[in-house]
């Protein structure tokens, strides 16, 4: 066994990097582990339908997050976001204990979920800021593996056919179904992480090309999941990226650079490569095209239904199940405002109504106190995210900022304000957003210098 004095500087550096990677893998298992959980359980049939396996896999994430200096060194976090989150949890725990619907019986299970959230945040404040060095590349690897696992699962699932939403199926017989939202989240995380790494000035040519391909692969998975909130989030992310990163001077330089011999040669190679790929994979292109057309047609039908327009053969357009549920939720809110306004003031009780719109549910179930505390946290987080997009402080803050856009869209489209699928990522934002000024220079993004004239 080697003594500490016999270890070289390179050995220490290697072990340090491995520990940082371990922490990041643990974090990703907690916030994005469900695609792999479904793959192991349902595709590889390791433990089909087992909740114990799910709990064990998430526990593995927590274990990987435990640093060697656990409890000996704690790190700073965003105290503003922490205080707002604690206020919201104080409200919902009060409602869960003293003001809940008579049919609600899951107080113990919900309490365990909240303990998981607190444990995750506690482990995060033990993890060093140095994970910034490896967070984005490890996220790319983790999400690409999950995307590949999904593709393998679809190709080997005899019950899945082209045209269905991309998700690993679980259950038996007529109750067999899948959850495309977790795979859409993974795909969007992959696109964001790949985009950050590809446009990073320090990234060399070959890694940049590979990450761009991985980003396109993630977009393909995103299209196949057909989740509206993720598509809307991706459009917003691209728009925000262009808003904060593209300037007229940069556009002129880019156009001028396109006519350089090296750029023209690269464009020719890319054109030939894309042409060959499309010829050899025409079926794949047709499948993605079919998914895109089906997605557009389905959403146009929802628009027609809202406007009361008739479509083919004079049949009235109708909302799909997801949009119909949200339309019902908004109608419910309108009825409450018109006939039971006192509900807006004090709420109906913890989890008394399922509306599938988190901000609206916080208002209906917890009244003004729940809505104000939850909305204050969410919009404060949005403020820090937009500031990070503008300032580009470090890769992790940038990743979290663009990832939050998906969560922000979901606040108006699907989910509940209590879900750990929201609060585990929120814990990451409490820990790392808005504190880049406390980092040493080697962790912060260096400004990109303009090329000499």
Automatic annotation (TrEMBL):
Keywords: Membrane, Transmembrane, Transmembrane helix. The keyword Transmembrane helix applies. The keyword ATP-binding does not apply. The chain crosses the membrane at residues 20-40, 52-70, 82-99, 111-128, 134-155, 205-224, 230-246, 258-278, 363-384, 396-414. It comes from the Bacteria. This is O-antigen ligase domain-containing protein.
């Amino acid at each position: 066994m080697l003594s500490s004095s016999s270890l070289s500087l390179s050995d220490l550096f290697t072990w340090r990097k491995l520990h940082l990677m371990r922490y990041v893998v643990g974090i990703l298992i907690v916030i994005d582990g469900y695609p792999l959980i479904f793959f192991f359980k349902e595709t590889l049939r390791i433990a089909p339908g087992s909740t114990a396996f799910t709990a064990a896999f998430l526990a593995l994430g927590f274990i990987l997050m435990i640093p060697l200096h656990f409890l000996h060194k704690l790190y700073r976090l965003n105290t503003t976001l922490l205080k707002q989150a604690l206020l919201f949890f104080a409200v919902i725990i009060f409602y869960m204990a003293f003001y809940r619907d008579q049919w609600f019986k899951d107080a113990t299970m919900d309490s365990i979920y909240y303990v998981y959230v607190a444990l995750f945040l506690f482990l995060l404040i033990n993890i060093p800021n140095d994970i910034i060095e490896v967070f984005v590349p490890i996220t790319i690897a983790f999400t690409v593996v999950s995307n590949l696992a999904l593709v393998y699962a679809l190709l080997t699932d005899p019950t899945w056919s082209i045209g269905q939403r991309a998700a690993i199926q679980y259950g038996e017989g007529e109750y067999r179904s899948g959850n495309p939202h977790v795979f859409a989240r993974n795909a969007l995380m992959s696109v964001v992480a790949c985009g950050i790494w590809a446009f990073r000035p320090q990234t060399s040519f070959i890694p940049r090309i590979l990450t761009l391909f991985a980003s396109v692969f993630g977009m393909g998975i995103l299209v196949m999941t057909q989740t509206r909130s993720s598509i809307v989030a991706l459009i917003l992310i691209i728009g925000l990226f262009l808003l904060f990163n593209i300037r007229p001077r940069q556009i002129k330089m880019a156009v001028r650079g396109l006519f350089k011999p090296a750029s023209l040669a690269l464009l020719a190679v890319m054109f030939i490569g894309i042409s060959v790929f499309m010829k050899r994979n025409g079926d794949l292109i047709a499948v993605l095209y079919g998914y895109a057309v089906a997605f557009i047609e389905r959403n146009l039908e929802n628009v027609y239904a809202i406007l009361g327009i008739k479509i083919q053969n004079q049949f009235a357009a109708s909302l799909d199940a997801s949009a119909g549920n949200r339309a019902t939720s908004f109608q419910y809110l309108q009825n409450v405002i018109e006939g039971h306004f006192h509900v807006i003031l004090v709420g109906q009780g913890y989890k008394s109504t399922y509306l599938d719109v988190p901000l609206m549910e916080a208002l209906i179930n917890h009244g003004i106190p729940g809505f104000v505390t939850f909305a204050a946290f969410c919009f404060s987080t949005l403020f820090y995210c937009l500031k990070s997009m503008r300032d580009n402080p470090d890769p992790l803050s940038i990743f979290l900022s663009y990832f939050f856009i998906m969560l922000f869209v979901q606040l108006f489209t699907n989910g509940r304000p209590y879900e750990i699928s929201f609060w585990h990522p929120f814990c990451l934002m409490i820990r790392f957003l808005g504190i880049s000024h406390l980092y040493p220079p080697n962790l912060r993004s260096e400004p990109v210098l303009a090329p000499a004239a």
